[in-house]
Structure prediction request, 197 residues.
Amino acid sequence: MNLAFRIITLSLAILGAIVSLVGFFALRSKMLEDKEKIALTKALYELARSGKGDQAKLAEMESELRAAERVVTAVPYLLVGSVMALVGGVLAMCRFPSCGAVWIFLSFLGPLVLNVRSIVCTFFLPLAFLTCMVACFVPSPAPTARRSRRDRDDDRDYRDDDRDYRDDRDRDDRDDWGRRDRGDDRYDDRRRRDRDD
Prediction:
């Protein structure tokens, strides 16, 4: 069961990383345009603050400037988040689900804090985080002890010795039955002595 959750976590982390990368490349051109707009808006904002520009649009320009800056700073986090999601998925698959959960959580938290709309690009990552957390609490089967070559050779020797012993015992039994069928008195005397002891 634990393995199934770890495989699902890795799959969701890979999908989340792919969607994050697509989001990064789709929003990169918009980010470059927004950087120019931010520079222009900053200049207009400084003019309005100094009293030479339109005072009525000052609050509106400030809110636009902050929103554009948040979008611009969130876009590189999509690229970083995709790498962190892959690392988290691999860690979860390698039996470190708690470490993987931290990496996956951080991979979608950065863009989400800076711009809430970035959840569109990282919507697989919260699911990967949840399955990774489930994998943390589902008990995994105890690992089987690896047997050394020496132990396996000892077992093989023991089986060979046991087979030789059984073969010898069967041969002795056949010999004993053969003597008894022939009416050999020594066989009966030996059996009586064994019974008396």
The chain has two domains: 2-137, 149-196. DSSP finds six helices and no strands in the chain. Residues 149-196 form one domain. Residues 74 and 116 are 9 Å apart (CA to CA).
